[in-house]
Amino acid sequence: MAELAKMQNDPNFVIEFALGPPASTLVDQTGAPPELNLNFQNMVSSEVTRYVLKSAHLSLDDLRMFDVKTGKLAFVSHHPGKNPYDSLDPLSLGNGDANYQRNTMGEWDSVCDVRGYGGFRSFKVRPKKLSRHGRQYVRYDNQEEPLFNMSNVSRLKSQSIRHSTAACREDEREPVWTITADMMERTQVVLNEKEEQVAFVQKSLKTLILNAQFGKGSEVVIDIAPGVDQFALLAVLFAEKQVGSHVIKDGVSNFVINPLQNEATDQAVDALGMGEAVNAYNSVSSGAAHYARVGQWVQKSFFS
Question: Highest taxon of the source (predicted)?
Answer without folding.
Answer: Eukaryota
